[in-house]
Each structure stands twice: as structure tokens, then as C-alpha cells.
Write a structure and sequence with these properties.
The complex is a heterotrimer of chains A (284), B (267) and C (319). With 284 residues, chain A is mainly alpha-helical. Chain A contains eleven helices and two strands, in the order αααββαααααααα. In chain A, a hairpin with a 2-residue loop joins strand 1 and strand 2. The relative contact order of chain A is 0.13. Chain C starts with a strand and ends with a helix. Classes of the chains: A mainly alpha (284), B mainly alpha (267), C alpha/beta (319).
């Protein structure tokens, strides 16, 4: 990833293996930190399961009303879409991350600058660990429940599962970058509630959580895919998984994600640099 | 009686002042809250782009359910939505601070956290309901008019009860996270669609067992003059607002048990 | 003097789950308060201290109606706290050092006004008490500031005022000086001392800061592991734990023969024999000094007060 090399200058150690080990430790710490919230994990997975039932029934009714295929999705594809979507929303952590904003508010963020590692990389590595934990304990349980009750569409192409894994990884990075940017507005704004709400709604409606974006007129959907990062967070991984499109399009969608990941991480860099300058000059 | 309520009235007034103290962020919240309901309505509109009917209901008919659900939910969210912060109060001990005042704990909590910024949502919910009732083929009678007013109010009571009941989980399980959301926000989604789309077991538990079917679906059937495909007699729609009564009773009971538990464990 | 607070055999048990093995959890009962008997007469300023987890806060919660006792009886102002909570609430004031009872976004003045309505206090009495607090706690410049902009010390002064506006008979303070700067601590202590001297309000104070106790409380209750280990004055505590005042004298010449006074013990003699240190255990300092002055020319004299920290540390460590 471009980010890691971009931050290498900051590392005190020039040994690349030591660096990788360092990031590995951060990833593991993210995993372990979330593993301690065991009760919250159970509560969250149960909530996702209830919503999985609700959304799945609605989508199946839509497919039935549309004569079996709704905007290119069959009923079983929609079932897979909904249940994996409920899990994915916890893996990418759409809502409820305010670590950075809290640290900015309390001023603790200044201590991030003392570490020999780039702040964006620091938070990203921890977030990847968190996402790993969420994949095991927030994605799998609801999906297993859904699988017991509903007919799922399971991918037929051999390349789909690895492509889905890659799309999910990119989705985590994109969602992380968006959250980082939303949180970072706390450097300049006293009250970031408005921004947070706008992000929560934008990401869930335009991300494909409420309904697959293909239900929208094709030009609108295309504009959203290419012009905003939201579909790259939930919609694209799910489209890849349920094989909504032919294989070349499937790969192309992941390419769109890769571009968004690069653009957003770049934006994080810029914002971080500005924020640091502000911190250093104005003392926070 | 009036003098018993006076402290609560002042508490409410203080809360209004506190929440409007920062005008800019209040306005931002007012506006951003509109979008939550708009998103719900938008979702239904989008679903009807790809299908012409949902379990035999047309768009206008489905929007009657959405309107009933949104109206009731928005009112309840305004009055009781913030009670989900109870778990935060339990964890930080702020509940103790309320318990040393000479007022009852639940009304204090409800008034302290009243979500004025959600007023805008009530407006949107009401607008959707009115628009849907105008667009849908409703044969207006005085009884239907009364039901159209009564049903969202009963829905508001019902959802308030769900909010309170959901929050009491915190007395036993502080780390319950967003679990209560599955009944509150989930309930809102559940009531916005015809009961016939749900699987039999799911419908039995949530629709009839917990009573969500009587908030949107059955009043909508009565307003639209449609028979129930699930086979319940026609008068069910007319008496469905009564579902608020047992819900409120059950929530009050849960609250009492919960606060007693809190008092004995001091969690 | 009538008794305002009465506890008899007060006990509070909590069940805690302890991990036993990988997944199994075993239940265990722990007594946070383990049979406390205490009576507090009207107008007393009582210090209630103990190490973390000793049961201080649990006791306070049972006194204020937040927690139900497992066993034993409590009466505050003649009322049983939990079932008569709202009636009791009008007659007591509570200050939590670590949580606020004020409205975060409102100016102090508005919070005070709201409290008047919540407690339904006649305006005249409310205004009189507010006037008194305003001058004693120097609130005048702060009344129009929203609470969230106040410093901790300023907020605490507001909290104490808020707890007193309805003219409570008993004031409970849970760690009121925690985290305060020296000046604010002094202001709070000075105010409480004044309140105690007036003798109308009974004050129960839990604290970690033993200086609070030293400055304010004639009666001191020390609780440890849920039991009362000391109930009496500070002097009695010192006596019991062998920590005493010391008198250090410098004489011109070593005394010809040892100076002895009943109740005073010679602890050490300086290498040149001219500096003598006595521990007082019953004897008056004056008596000892008079005898020493008789034995030779007195050059210098110091009386060392025992450090309360030392006593309490000793109390906590030899359980």
C-alpha cells in the first residue's frame, strides 16, 4: 500500500522487517482490544441478525413483486446481499467510531505525534485488526443464522471468493479513511455532530445498506459509484459476492474501490499534515 | 394535580433552554434529523421503482403504513428516544444523581433527554402520512378520520413503551450496546411494511407477540378498507390502537423491576 | 440532641461473578458494608473515611435512597430512604464530587432557579440561602456562565450551593474536594467549616483527602472492609494507634538528671545531649515544658503534630 511507504521516512528503524513486525503488532493490538468487548459483540451480532431478518423479508417481497428478478438480482442473491451486508456493516464499522475526534477534543492527539510511526498508519493498522476480529465475530454469526433460514446464493465463479476478500479489505480501508476524515473535522469544528450524522446517513443510504443502489436509475447509480466513495464501502463487495455482473465488470468494480482507497488515503495524509501544522503552531 | 406537575414543567422548560442554547448546532440537528425519515420514505419509493406492488399493496397504500410508522416513531423518539442513554447513565453513575432529587426517576430521565431536534422529524412523518392518505383510495368517514388521528398517537405511545422497555435492559446488562435498537429502530422498519411479507414464525413473535402488527399494518387495513389476508376479522384494525395500553403497562412494570434491581445491585 | 441519621447492623452484599476456568463463571457474595452501627446527632460534622472499596460510597448510597440495604435498618431524618426517597430528597442535599447535578448547557443561575421549582421551595428562603452561598463561595462572577465553561473548582462551588438551596437538614458530600486546586479546596473547606459552626445542618463527608478531615471534622468514622474500625475524635485515633504529638526542646546544657513527667516519654536524646524529644501520651505539653525549663535554660521548642496520613496508612495496612 502506498501509505506505508509514504510513512517510512518517519520510522526510526530502517529495517523493513522490523517495520512490518511493528505494524503487525498494531494490527494484533486492534484485534485484541475489540476482543475484550465480548458482550458488546454479542449484542451487536444479535442486533444485526434482527435487521437481517427484517431487510431480507422486504427484499424477498420486492423480488416476488417484480416477478422474481428485481433490478438484476434474484431472490436468493438479495438474501445473500442483505445478510452479508449486515455483517459487513460491522466489519467496515460504518457507525460509532469517534476515537480520533475524542482524542482531538481532549488534546491527547498530540501524543500521537510522539510515536515513531505515521498517525494515519497507526490508526489504520489498529483498524485492520479490529476489522479482522469483526469478520470472525460480527460477520459470520448473522450470516450463519441467515443461511439456516433463507436460501442463499453462493458464488459459482472460482475467483469470486478471493475477489470478495480483496473488495472487503479495500472497503475497510475506504471506510476507515472516511471515518478518519469525518473525525478530523474536530480539529476545526467545535461540534462535529452534524458531520457525523451526515456521514451516517450518506454512507448507509448511498452505500447500499437500505437498498441495492442498482434499484436506482442506471445513470444515478453510475454517478454514485464513480463520483462518491459510498458504494465502495458496502455495495461493491456485495455486488462482487452475489455475482451481479459478468466477471470483467466484477474486477472493474474492485478497481474503482482501489482508486477510491488511494484517493482517500491521500486526503487523510493532507488533512493530517495540515492538522499537525495547526497543532504545532497553535498548540492545538 | 397541577402542582404535582409543576416541577416537571420547569424541568422541561430548562431542557428546552439548554438544547436551544447553541442555536447553530440545534439547527444543524433539526435539519439532519429530517433526513433520517426522508431516507425511510426514499427507500420505499426506490423499492417501488423495481416492483409495482409489495405483497399486493400499491405504493400509496404502502406509504400509509410508512406514514403511520414514521409519525408514531418520530413522536416517540422525540419524547422517549434519548432514554437509550440510560446505559450511559448507569455506567457513569449519573442515574444516582437523579435519584437524589425529589422527583420520580423515569419522568426526570424522559424530560432531561427530550429530543427537541427531532421535532422536524415529526413534521416530515405527518406530511408523509397526510400525503399517503390523500393519494391512497380511502373512503373517508368520521370513524376513519378519527382512526387516522388516533393510530399515530397510539403508535407513539407504543414506541415510547418500546424505547423504555429496551432501555431497561441496561439495568441488567450495561454493555448491551445497540441491542435495544433492534426493537426500536427495527420496530419502526417492521411496522412500515405489510405483515404478510414476513415469515410466519417471525410474524408471530414480533408482529403479534410484541404487538408491532397493530401499529401500522392493521390500522392501515381499516383505513384502506381492505380485508386481512392473514384472516383476522375487520374490527381488529379499528381496535388496534388499544395495543398501546398493554405495551405501556408492560414497560412500566419492566421499569419498576429494573430500577429495583438497580437499587439492590448498584451496578 | 436528636439523632438525624441512624444505622443498625447495616449490611450490603453484592454478588460478583468470578471467572472459574475458560467459560464457567462462579457467583460469589461479597459484603461491601458489613454490619455498620452508627448514630449521627443533629448538627454534627462527620468525616467518613476509608480506603478505596471500603464501603464509603455504598453506605452513602444507602443513606440517600439509591441503594437498598441487604440487611439492617437505616433512618435518615426519621425516614426510610428507599421507599420514602422523594420525601427524603427534599430534606437532604447531596454533592457528588465526580458527577454533576447541574445543567451542563445552562448558566448556574438558571440551574439554581430550576432547582427551586424541582424542590418546590418558597422563593424567599431560596433567595436568602442563595445570597449566603453567593457571598461565602464567591459565586457572583460565575452566575451567568454556562456550567460546562466553569472550572472544576468553580463547578464544585456551584454544586454545593445547588445542594443547599432547599435548606436540607443533612448534607452528604462524596469526595467534594477531589481534583480541586489548593485555592478551591480552601474555599470549600472554609465554607463547610462555617456551615458546621452554624450547627443547623448535619454534614456527612467522605473523602480521600485527610486534610479535609483534619480541618473540619470533630468526629471521624473510619471504615475498612465494610466495618467500622474507628469512631471518635481525631485525637482518640492518634492515641489508639500510638501516634502522638511530640515536643522537641533544645537546652543550653544537658540536664543534670533525667526530666520525667507522667504521660510523657523520652523518645530520643541528641548526640550532645542538649536536644530532647518527648512523645506526649496523656500529659499536657505545658506541664512538660515547665518541668524542662526548671531543669535548665530553654533555647528552643517545637511541638510536632502527628501526621494523620501516617495513622491512617497504618490503619489500612495492618488489617
Amino acid at each position: 500500500m502506498g501509505l506505508v511507504t509514504a510513512t517510512a521516512a518517519r520510522d526510526t528503524s530502517s529495517n523493513p522487517f522490523a517495520q512490518i513486525r511493528g505494524y503487525g503488532a498494531l494490527v494484533r493490538s486492534g484485534f485484541r482490544r475489540y476482543a475484550t468487548y465480548r458482550q458488546a459483540t454479542v449484542a451487536g451480532a444479535a442486533t444485526n441478525t434482527v435487521f437481517g431478518f427484517l431487510r431480507c423479508y422486504v427484499m424477498l417481497a420486492v423480488a416476488a413483486g417484480a416477478g422474481g428478478v428485481a433490478a438484476g438480482y434474484r431472490g436468493d442473491q438479495l438474501a445473500t446481499y442483505v445478510w452479508f451486508g449486515q455483517g459487513l456493516l460491522a466489519v467496515v464499522l460504518l457507525w460509532g467510531w469517534s476515537d480520533l475526534a475524542d482524542r482531538i477534543r481532549t488534546g491527547e492527539v498530540a501524543t500521537d505525534l510522539l510515536r515513531p510511526i505515521h498517525p494515519v498508519a497507526l490508526y489504520l493498522a489498529t483498524d485492520l485488526g479490529r476489522a479482522g476480529y469483526a469478520t470472525l465475530f460480527r460477520l459470520l454469526p448473522p450470516v450463519l443464522v441467515g443461511l439456516l433460514v433463507f436460501d442463499f446464493y453462493l458464488p459459482g465463479r472460482p475467483g469470486t471468493w478471493p475477489l470478495f476478500a480483496l473488495a472487503t479489505l479495500l472497503a475497510v480501508v475506504i471506510c476507515f479513511a472516511c471515518r478518519f476524515l469525518v473525525n478530523a473535522t474536530a480539529y476545526w469544528l467545535l461540534d462535529i455532530r452534524g458531520v457525523t450524522v451526515a456521514w451516517a446517513l450518506g454512507s448507509s443510504v448511498l452505500g447500499g445498506l437500505y437498498f441495492p443502489l442498482r434499484f436506482l436509475p442506471a445513470p444515478v447509480a453510475a454517478a454514485l459509484y464513480l463520483g462518491t466513495p459510498f458504494p465502495s464501502i458496502i455495495q461493491i463487495p456485495l455486488d462482487v459476492l452475489v455475482e451481479r455482473d459478468p466477471a470483467p465488470v466484477q474486477v472493474g468494480l474492485v478497481g474503482v474501490q482501489a482508486v477510491w482507497a488511494a484517493v482517500l488515503l491521500g486526503a487523510c495524509q493532507v488533512v493530517q499534515r495540515r492538522a499537525e501544522r495547526r497543532l504545532v503552531i497553535q498548540g492545538g | 394535580m397541577a402542582s404535582v406537575l409543576t416541577p416537571y414543567r420547569h424541568l422541561l422548560r430548562g431542557q428546552v433552554r439548554a438544547q436551544t442554547a447553541y442555536r447553530a448546532s440545534f439547527v444543524v440537528n433539526l435539519v439532519s434529523n429530517v433526513w433520517a425519515t426522508v431516507a425511510d420514505v426514499l427507500t420505499v419509493l426506490v423499492l417501488f421503482r423495481v416492483t409495482t406492488s409489495l405483497a399486493g399493496f400499491s405504493l400509496a397504500e404502502a406509504l400509509v403504513m410508512v406514514g403511520l410508522s414514521a409519525c408514531g416513531f418520530a413522536l416517540a423518539d422525540l419524547a422517549a428516544g434519548n432514554i437509550e442513554r440510560l446505559r450511559h447513565y448507569v455506567r457513569t453513575g449519573l442515574l444516582d444523581a437523579l435519584l437524589v432529587r425529589p422527583l420520580r426517576a423515569l419522568p426526570q430521565l424522559l424530560l432531561m433527554d427530550i429530543g427537541l431536534q427531532r421535532l422536524s422529524r415529526v413534521g416530515v412523518g405527518a406530511a408523509v402520512l397526510v400525503a399517503a392518505l390523500v393519494a391512497a383510495p380511502v373512503e373517508w368517514t368520521p370513524a376513519r378520520l378519527a382512526l387516522a388521528v388516533l393510530a399515530p398517537l397510539a403508535g407513539a405511545l407504543f414506541f415510547s413503551a418500546i424505547f423504555v422497555a429496551g432501555a431497561t435492559v441496561a439495568f441488567w446488562w450495561v454493555e448491551s450496546g445497540e441491542l435495544a435498537n433492534s426493537l426500536t429502530y427495527g420496530g419502526k422498519d417492521l411496522t412500515a411494511y405489510p405483515m404478510t411479507i414476513y415469515g410466519p414464525a417471525f410474524r408471530r413473535v414480533f408482529g403479534f407477540g410484541l404487538g408491532f402488527a397493530f401499529v401500522g399494518y392493521y390500522p392501515a387495513l381499516a383505513l384502506l378498507g381492505r380485508p386481512d389476508p392473514l384472516g383476522l376479522p375487520g374490527w381488529v384494525g379499528w381496535v388496534s390502537p388499544a395495543v398501546a395500553a398493554p405495551a405501556v403497562g408492560a414497560a412500566a412494570l419492566l421499569w419498576r423491576v429494573g430500577i429495583r434491581h438497580y437499587r439492590s445491585t448498584g451496578s | 440532641m436528636s439523632t438525624v441519621i441512624e444505622m443498625q447492623g447495616l449490611r450490603k452484599e453484592f454478588t460478583v461473578r468470578v471467572r472459574a476456568g475458560r467459560l464457567r463463571r462462579a457467583k460469589r457474595t461479597v459484603a461491601a458494608v458489613d454490619g455498620v452501627d452508627l448514630a449521627v446527632p443533629r448538627g454534627e460534622l462527620l468525616g467518613y473515611i476509608g480506603p478505596n472499596g471500603a464501603g464509603k460510597s455504598t453506605t452513602l448510597k444507602m443513606l440517600t435512597g439509591i441503594l437498598t440495604p441487604t440487611a439492617g435498618t437505616v433512618r435518615v431524618c426519621g425516614l426510610v430512604p428507599v421507599p420514602q426517597r422523594t420525601r427524603l430528597a427534599r430534606r437532604i442535599g447531596v454533592v457528588f464530587g465526580q458527577r454533576s447535578l447541574l445543567w451542563w448547557d445552562l448558566p448556574l443561575r438558571d440551574s439554581f432557579d430550576l432547582l427551586r421549582h424541582i424542590y418546590r421551595v418558597p422563593a424567599a428562603g431560596h433567595a436568602a440561602r442563595l445570597r449566603r452561598c453567593r457571598s461565602l463561595l464567591e459565586l457572583d462572577g460565575l452566575l451567568d456562565t454556562p456550567v460546562r465553561q466553569l472550572s472544576l473548582g468553580q463547578r464544585m462551588r456551584g454544586e454545593i450551593t445547588a445542594a443547599l438551596l432547599h435548606g436540607p437538614e443533612v448534607l452528604f458530600l462524596d469526595e467534594p474536594t477531589i481534583g480541586l486546586d489548593v485555592v478551591s479546596k480552601q474555599a470549600v473547606r472554609g465554607f463547610l467549616a462555617e456551615l458546621g459552626a452554624a450547627g443547623e445542618t448535619t454534614v456527612v463527608l467522605t473523602t480521600h483527602d485527610l486534610n479535609d478531615i483534619e480541618k473540619l471534622c470533630r468526629r471521624l468514622v473510619v471504615i475498612d472492609n465494610g466495618r467500622v474500625v474507628h469512631d471518635g475524635s481525631l485525637a482518640q485515633l492518634h492515641q489508639r494507634y500510638g501516634s502522638t504529638r511530640q515536643v522537641v526542646v533544645d537546652l543550653d546544657e544537658p540536664p543534670a538528671e533525667p526530666v520525667t513527667v507522667p504521660g510523657a516519654r523520652l523518645v530520643s536524646t541528641g548526640s550532645d545531649g542538649r536536644r530532647l524529644t518527648y512523645a506526649l501520651a496523656g500529659a499536657e505539653a505545658g506541664e512538660l515544658v515547665a518541668r524542662l525549663a526548671g531543669a535548665g535554660a530553654l533555647r528552643d521548642l517545637t511541638v510536632l503534630e502527628p501526621a494523620i496520613e501516617d495513622v491512617v496508612t497504618r490503619l489500612y495496612t495492618d488489617r
